[in-house]
Specification:
Chain A: GO terms for molecular function: catalytic activity. The complex is a heterodimer of chains A (463) and B (69). Chain A is α/β, with parallel strands linked by helices. Chain A is built from 15 helices and 13 strands. Chain A has an eleven-stranded mixed sheet, with helices on both faces. Chain A has a two-stranded antiparallel ribbon with strand order 10-11. In chain B, helix 1 crosses helix 2. Chain B has a domain of 39 residues. Chains A and B meet through helix 4, helix 9, helix 11 and helix 12 of A and helix 1 and helix 2 of B.
């Protein structure tokens, strides 16, 4: 096994016990990037010299007995919406061609403090406003979409081009590409990870979170990054928590909600089968399955759009007037049309969100988590614009990919996506576990237990 | 055309009123997208909100000290 193939937890243990140096690990990942990046295009920029220098610093510190914790010496990719002092935050957009971040985002500063080695910045759908990330190729089939908007981060982790990565999630943008590339993505509780220095798509829906190869890895990143930041108005004050799941697979007593409605409607049969098998596996581990009714399903898309569209337009108000031609066509027209929405539309969505949060809180008193597909279908071919369901219904690819993930953005509840198999074309299938606010540890425990029942999934057979 | 749909000319007027003058070649595309968004979000009018407040984050007392990284 090569160092680039190690999970974060495995690499961290090898570094802690001096069986692997951060320099060896970083060189291995950089070599993998050199091989695979031309085919996958996950990165906007790779800062190889900077990474080598950080790896040497980490190696020196650890040799001197100053081991900072599990992220020390671990190579990470950051979605290019996340500021790193002295680097451009391009948002994969020509609008940001001359950008230079003056200071670190809070999450980049916390990663640096934890000793992580920054490899570079990964591609996003322009300004995170889309679900495909067209610049980047799926790690399992380069003719397929990466998913988005954190497509570069998910592909990098899936292909061994980063040991872990950070993404952002406004309607599913961590979980969708994670599902489509067979890796783990965690959208934490709204406000748990600070967004200071992270380019916004929609303030009231935006989250930052980890993309990793296992639930345990996601827990390690969450532990290092959670904590209050007074510069983010939504940031929560919570006690420092060790999210690492305990070993063992016993889920006795855990109540898992299985949706009777919504989450299995207009879902590809192979995706449904894989997710239902995974839910049965959780049952075999001791969990009790309880059917649940998903509330207010008729209003999910309307609420998501009426929050996101005007907030995104507001964020881009200046540049939409000064440099509109620098936006990609799909993003520009959404930003322009957002100018035509009314305050009434927006306030109805914020009131609908109040109702939806209450209804979900009621369900999450009856069960400890809800298990469902992350996305209704696996990665579509690049350029495919619609999905046609068995009953003849036609849905845009973007609408399909965001449909099952957006409820957790509206409610702010945590959602963990993990791989649960492949379809007959060999493409990964994702299941999401949705939990109560600030109960990430419940999701990570269930995800970790599930992973213990399966062979390690390994890297994507990239390019 | 349903009465609620915007003509390209109306979309241009609304945008101008919002402070975003649109070049003529944008009017039709923006009108079509705005109409589609409207068709999606209009269902929220069915909800009975009674005295439900909007879910907006707001703290009267701002914290001014630097973030702890």
């Amino acid at each position: 096994m090569q160092p680039y193939e190690l999970t974060l937890a495995e690499a961290a243990d090898a570094i802690r016990t001096r069986h692997l140096s951060p320099v060896e690990l970083t060189e291995s990942v950089l070599e993998r990037i050199a091989q695979k990046e031309p085919h996958l295009r996950a990165y906007v920029t790779v800062a190889a010299d900077r990474a080598r220098s950080a790896a040497r610093d980490a190696a020196r510190d650890i040799a001197a007995g100053h081991h900072r914790g599990p992220l020390h010496g671990i190579p990470v990719g950051l979605k290019d919406l996340i500021d790193v002092a002295g680097s451009a935050t391009t948002a994969s957009s020509l609008v940001r061609a001359d950008h230079r971040a003056r200071t670190d985002s809070t999450v980049a500063a916390r990663l640096a403090q934890a000793g992580a080695v920054l490899l570079g910045k990964t591609h996003t759908h322009e300004f995170a406003y889309g679900l495909t990330t067209p610049q980047t190729h799926n790690a399992w089939d380069t003719d397929r979409v990466a998913g988005g908007s954190s497509g570069g981060s998910a592909v990098a982790v899936a292909a061994g081009m980063a040991t872990f990565a950070l993404g952002t999630d406004t309607g599913g943008s961590i979980r969708v590409p994670s599902a489509l590339n067979g890796v783990v993505g965690l959208k934490p509780t709204y406000g748990l990870l600070p967004r200071t220095g992270v380019t916004s798509l929609s303030w009231s829906l935006d989250h930052v979170g980890p993309i990793t190869r296992t639930a345990e890895d996601a827990a390690l990143v969450l532990t290092a990054l959670a904590g209050h930041d007074p510069r983010d108005a939504a940031s929560l004050s919570v006690p420092a928590t060790d999210y690492r799941p305990r070993s063992g697979t016993d889920l006795a007593g855990l109540r898992i909600g299985v949706p009777r409605t919504y989450y299995f409607d207009h879902v590809d049969p192979e995706t449904e089968d894989a997710v239902r098998r995974a839910i049965e596996q959780l049952h075999d581990l001791g969990a009790r399955l309880v059917e649940v009714e998903i509330p207010m399903t008729r209003y999910i898309q309307a609420t998501q759009w009426a929050l996101m569209v005007p907030e995104a337009t507001a964020y881009h108000e200046n540049t939409l007037r000064t440099v509109p031609d620098l936006y990609q066509a799909d993003v520009r027209v959404l930003l322009e049309a957002g100018e035509l929405m009314t305050a009434g539309d927006y306030l109805r969505a914020q009131r609908s969100r109040t109702l939806m949060r209450r209804e979900w809180a009621r369900i999450l008193k009856e069960v400890d988590l809800v298990a469902a597909p992350t996305v209704p279908t696996t990665a579509v071919r690049a350029g495919q614009e619609t999905v046609t369901w068995a009953d003849g219904t036609v849905e845009t690819v973007s609408d399909a990919y965001v449909r099952l993930s957006s409820p957790a953005n509206i409610t702010g509840a945590p959602s963990l996506s993990l791989p649960v198999g492949h379809d007959s074309a060999g493409l990964p299938i994702g299941m999401q576990l949705l939990g109560r606010p600030l109960e990430e540890s419940v999701l990570l425990r269930a995800g970790h237990a599930y992973e213990q029942t399966r062979p390690a999934s390994g890297l994507a057979p990239a390019a | 055309m349903p009465a609620t749909e915007l003509t390209p000319r109306e979309a241009a007027r609304w945008a101008t009123r919002g402070g975003l003058p649109l070049p003529a070649d944008r009017h039709a595309a923006v009108a079509a997208t705005a109409d589609h968004i409207h068709s999606v979000v209009a269902v929220l009018r069915e909800l009975d909100f009674d005295d439900i407040p909007p879910a907006l984050a707001y703290r009267a007392a701002e914290e001014a000290h630097d973030a702890a990284v």
